Amino acid sequence: MDTGKYLIFLKVLEERSFSKAAEELGYTQSAISHSVYSLEKAFGFKLLNRENGNISLTRAGIDVLPYIRSVVNAQNLLDFTLSSYQRLESGTLTIATIPSLAIQHFPGLLQAFNREYPKIHVVVLDGNYEEVEEMLASGRVDFGFTSLSETMPFSTFSLFRERLDAILPADHPLAAKERLSLTDLENEVFIMPGEGPTHQVGKLIRDYNLKFRTVYSVFDDNLTVSMISHGLGVSILPQMSYEHYLNFSFAARPLVEKPSRTVGVIHNHIESISPISKAFLRFSRRYFQVQFGEMQ
Asked: Which domain CATH number covers 167?
């Protein structure tokens, strides 16, 4: 918003003089007079009385003065906020993430980010794959951390890759094997994990033409692991989704097909996101490179 004419008008009113306003602002007196005249022409009525060298507000000027001040104050606040964002001194980030990543890695990531950018407020929302995508599409979040797929309608970049393992009850006969095949699970009660059939497990089922007996679909990995520990079935989960569950008794076995998922960031076009968002994305990439090394 161009508030230059408003600022000149307010300065003339403050000084009660065109010449003093020109001196204060560094303009010629004719430029100041022209600015006020063009503002009055745009409004369609006079704002100032000019009589015998005295300057005062017209009735219309009195009526519009509070609104002019409000516009100028709002522009000043906006300029200050934009400047703070550009300098990364303040602001709020809202991030969506899958729960396993939030639990396993976000505490360390956020702690490191806070040390470098202590005045930036970070809001974290968690959800399954579909929910993370919906939050980004609806504008609720600045970007999302999730498992990447080729069909996503967003810009993406990869952070790391992790193995998908077979998860089964600790006393299950298949637990005696060091490695399992995907076909070993076809005769078992299968628990479809929280990522749903449209992502990596669903892709495995389609790619290998598997005939899993899906009896349960559970949209929470904690509950999936708990159900497996109680003998209700088997599943396939990424490492982050089952590691460190010390209160549950279960077995995890690698699969000979070596399936994996790629965890990364989804975001809108890089030119449309805020400087703070760009800083967090760059920081996250460096952080996970240290944790996992460069993506191959």
From this structure: 3.40.190.10
Structure tokens at 150: 């080729």
Residues 95 and 82 in one domain: no
Displacement of CA 101 from its chain's centroid (Å): 14
Instruction: Report residue 143: phi and psi, to 5°.
Output: -165, 170
pLDDT tens digits, one per residue of 132-177: 999 999 889 999 999 998 888 898 999 999 999 999 999 999 999 9
pLDDT by residue (tens digit) across 27-38?
Answer: 999 999 999 999
How far is 40 from 46, CA to CA, in rounded Å? 5
* Mean pLDDT for the chain overall: 88
70 & 117 share domain: no
Per the listing, tokens 């952070």 go with 159
Residue ranges of E strands in the chain: 48-51, 54-57, 91-97, 120-126, 143-147, 155-169, 189-192, 213-217, 235-238, 250-254, 260-267
Residue type, 145: F
What is the span of the domain harbouring residue 284?
Answer: 91-158+262-292
One domain, residues 15 and 56 = yes
Looking at the fold, whether 283 and 148 belong to one and the same domain comes out as yes
- Examine the fold and report which residue of 56, 86, 116 is the final residue of a domain before the chain moves on: 86
Number of domains present in the structure of the chain: 3
d(CA 72, CA 64): 13
**Which pair of structure tokens corresponds to residue 107?**
């505490």
pLDDT digits (tens, 9 = 90+) for 41-100: 999 999 998 887 788 899 998 999 989 988 888 887 777 666 656 665 667 889 999 998
Question: DSSP letter string over 78-144?
Answer: HHHHHHHHHTTSSEEEEEEE-HHHHHHTHHHHHHHHHHH-TTEEEEEEE--HHHHHHHHHTTSSSEE
